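Box 3.1 A note on notation
Throughout this textbook, protein chains are presented in two layers. The first layer is the amino acid sequence; the second is a token string describing backbone geometry. Keep the layers aligned when reading.
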Amino acid sequence: MDRRGFMSKTLAAGAAVAIASVPANAAQGKTIKILGISCSPRKGKTTAAALKICLDAAKGVDSAVNTELIELAGLDIGIFDPNDPKASQGGFVDLIAVLSEPKVAAIIVGTPVYFGSMTSLCKAFLDHCMLFRQRNFALSGKVAGIVAVGGARNGGQELAIQSVQAALLCQEMIIVGDGRPTGHFGATLVNSGNDDISGDEFGIATAKNLGRRVAEVALKISAVTK
């Protein structure tokens, strides 16, 4: 059986088992929010589409999960200057309150792959998140997952994912990858060249599994720390 055949037969079963592992109303009446942060300079394209798949899968885990997609495209987020951080914040200022919401339990960061790494917009965003580290590690304990969209199946997605993971580990965030049956570093999708990921069956599976896994872990942590 080829890879696509395997995925089509096992994805539904794997998802059902994983979802069943989280009891209904796992957060015991407490709602949580999962943010999707699209770090593509192109609004509404494949990175945003991949994040929507993740967030939809996350919402499907439990009614206690709320989601929000934020696109950084068009925001003037300057290069982080540690000597004068406020002067270079620009559009990042608008994100501070959103990321600081107490109900935000998880963040899924999405980036296109540029030369085997994240976009400059993604790097600027992560650098400005130094603010939260300086505020007594305000993102500590929150769950994080990463989505990367490249131009080929082996187009640097995992390298980009790992570079984003490294930055979020410095925030004491809890990093998770895509869950079973794909079960690797995160969601890895291929843009066919026409701003379309709909034909990437395997990549879509990783996005669904990542969204589900992020929600599962966030709900379990939320239930424990209520």
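The longest strand covers residues 104-112. The chain is about 40% helix and 15% strand.
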